[in-house]
Each structure stands twice: as C-alpha cells, then as structure tokens.
Amino acid sequence: MLDLRSKFPDYYQYHGRNISKKLSLSNVRILNDYYSKYSLDKKILNISSKTSTEQLLQSNLFKKVIIEVGFGDGEHLIESALSNPKVLFVGSEVYVNGVAKVLKQILDKDIKNIRLCGMNFVYLLNILNQNSIDELKIINPDPWHKKRHFKRRLVNLENIIKIIGIVKNKYASYITTDSESYFNYINEIFSSNSKIIHENKNKILSKNDRLYGVSRYQRKAIKNGKKIYQLTF
Ligand SMILES: C[S@@+](CC[C@H](N)C(=O)[O-])C[C@H]1O[C@@H](n2cnc3c(N)ncnc32)[C@H](O)[C@@H]1O
Questions:
Q1: How many CB atoms lie within 10 A of CB 205?
Q2: What residue's CA is closest to ligand 1, atom 4?
Q3: Domain ranges of the chain
Q4: Which of 15, 95, 165, 194 is the most exposed place for a label (fewest CB within 10 A)?
Q5: Which of 28, 14, 23, 163 is nearest to 93 (CA)?
Q6: Cβ contact 66:90 at 8 Å
Q7: Please, which pLDDT band fits residue 14 given cuts at 50, 70 and 90?
Q8: What dotted CATH number matches 134-141+154-233?
Q9: What is the pLDDT of residues 190-233, one digit of tens each?
C-alpha cells in the first residue's frame, strides 16, 4: 500500500489526514506483507472495461456485498464481517493507520469476508457496475464544518447519483452524521434534485437502531449530547 501511495498519489489524495501518527514498525510490516492479499487497489488501478464487479470482488461465493466508506478504525466493519460470514464487506478508507488496524484484526481473527480499498472512495465508486452492490454505509463522514470547505464533503450530488446507480435497491444506502449542517446540506441536495434522484428518508437514531453508537467517533458525539441523524436513500 505504501509503495502504491507513492507511485499513484492522486488515487490516495483527499483533503483530510492520511496518517495521523507515525506508523509503528509492526504496522508498516503488516501493510507491506499482507495488504496486497486483501486489497482491491492494484486491481482498480489495472481495471479494464471488461472487468465486472463480480470479478473484481470475487463476490460469487457470497450472498451479498456491503460497502462501508470511511471505516475509520474499522470497529463497525470488523463487527459486521464477524457476525455475517456469508456477506462480503468492502471497506474503503484513506487513513492508513485505520487500514493497518483492520488488517491486523483480519489476520488475528482469520476474517475471510473483508476486502479493502485504501484509495479515495471515488475511484472505487467510478468502476463499480450498475446494480452490483446490496448495501452501502457511510458512518459519520468528515463533516467539513466551514462553509468554504463544503465542497470537500464526500456526500455531494455527483456521488449520490453514482451511489444510487451501483446499489441494487432503493433505501439500501445509509449515511449517519452528528453534524446538523451536513444533514441539512444532504437533505437540500435531495429536495432540489427530486427530478433526477429519488427522495430520501430521515430519522434521528436512538439506542435500538442498528447504526446507533457503532463507532468511537459516533459514541464521542453521543457523549457530547449530539444527535445522530441517519439519511437513507
Ligand atoms: C469522521 S471519520 C469517521 C470514521 C468512522 N466511520 C467512525 O465513525 O469512527 C471519517 C473517515 O472517512 C475517511 N474518508 C474521508 N474521505 C474519504 C474518501 N474519499 N475515501 C475513503 N475514506 C474517506 C477519513 O479518512 C476518516 O477516517
């Protein structure tokens, strides 16, 4: 992964931090020795128009394919994969420390139903076939609070249209956020583009909801008294 990042920097670029603290030697070793076994990056870089999503993901052995975008330290991704061994989970994350953490757990727990994409999610999104994915989740994307940074937000009209294209069914794409501003921003995208995208459903999550408190980031927000908004489309 580290050599791919230096050879193809554009694919790994995004506006936040890729590495928050220096990678430990053991994490560098894990990435160098095992990342390519679980990663889609090389395949994505070499993809041809003839490669189907099923070939890319080797998903024929699984009942379903679920994508989690921006999995952070991977708590929800690992938990989901362990509790649903017949489902293939594709985790996308540009934060190298998080990728290394997940890779370590994949090895320690011998998890067979996770594939990783360490490059900017947009490159994965662009090459997936229409109607090829069963569910897509974005758990608390970077909020980019300042107005001048809104254009950095991952959830924008272009990506919503693409997500709707690759996900098989309506209302199988989920976004959670603790940012009221981001929540309103996404709602506005749906309401002002109702001719080209179907409408979304919203709720404020509570304890019994499936995606409530599933990540450290979310739990920190809940502890600070924030609401967790969920948008489904
Ligand atoms: C606010 S954090 C939330 C992490 C995790 N979902 C959680 O709730 O703890 C957002 C994550 O999305 C990742 N991310 C942001 N933009 C991305 C992109 N374009 N492709 C893949 N990951 C991205 C960031 O690296 C970061 O780890």
A1: 19
A2: 72
A3: 1-129, 134-141+154-233
A4: 194
A5: 14
A6: yes
A7: confident
A8: 3.40.50.150
A9: 999 999 999 999 999 999 999 999 999 999 999 999 999 999 99
